[in-house]
Write a structure and sequence with these properties.
Layout: H1 4-41, E1 52-61, E2 66-75, H2 80-96, E3 111-118, E4 131-137, H3 139-144, H4 149-166, E5 170-177, E6 195-196, E7 204-207
Parallel strand pairs: 2-7, 4-5
Antiparallel strand pairs: 1-2, 3-4, 5-6
């Protein structure tokens, strides 16, 4: 005959074992559901790569102060602001190359953002949807830019010309540095004014 207190202990242990088994089964089900949810949320396709398009980079040359248009095949995003940033980044990559005709360190990271806004001022009937491009340069790019009126002006004008060549609706350009107005690029080129892209015209033909 099993003593009463042993039967009570046995019943308590059995109940505890059943409760523990239920908790373990519940935790297992929750973990399985989380795993399935993670699988469902995982991307099923690789990110799309922007297709290559014909683009024009208007690069400066210090030798003769010229702006030379260069045709390139580049992967460009559809969004105009993102497209402008990629184009100007490629332009600055040219300047950062060891054999650059207009050497400026920094490359593409020198372009923080490019914003496209409706152009202020009276509407031109020929370009009723004219835009203002706000080019936000990084402080590191401005700090490392060679100082001099010609070299700074060539950088600014080549940026304006590249925007004009690829985004015809951009008729005006303003510059910021780290999101703030700045008097000059590196001591000379005026960054407080609005530049007209019509004033930035390539002085040479296209090259590959």
């Amino acid at each position: 005959m099993i003593p009463r207190y042993q039967r009570v202990i046995l019943i308590v242990l059995l109940a505890a074992s059943l409760a523990m088994a239920g908790i373990l089964w519940h935790l297992r089900q929750r973990a399985h559901q989380r795993l399935l949810a993670g699988e469902d949320s995982a991307p099923t396709q690789a990110p799309e790569v922007a297709p290559a398009e014909q683009a024009t980079l208007v690069a400066a040359s210090d030798a003769d102060g010229s702006l030379l248009a260069q045709d390139r095949s580049l992967p460009l995003p559809a969004d105009p602001g993102a497209r402008a940033r990629v184009l100007l980044g490629k332009l600055l990559d040219l300047y950062a190359a060891p054999d650059a005709a207009h050497p400026v360190p920094g490359g593409a990271p020198g372009i923080a953002q490019v914003f496209l806004l409706p152009a202020p001022g009276p509407k031109d009937p020929q370009t009723p949807d004219a835009e203002l491009a706000v080019v936000n340069l990084t402080g590191a790019f401005a700090a490392s830019h060679p100082s001099g009126i010609e070299t700074e002006s060539l950088t600014v004008l080549s940026i304006c010309a590249t925007l004009r060549a690829n985004l015809p609706r951009v008729t005006q350009v303003r510059f910021l540095v780290d999101g703030q107005p700045r008097p000059t690029l590196a001591g000379h080129a005026d960054l407080t004014r609005t530049y007209l892209t019509a004033d930035a015209v390539p002085t040479g033909g296209t090259t590959p």
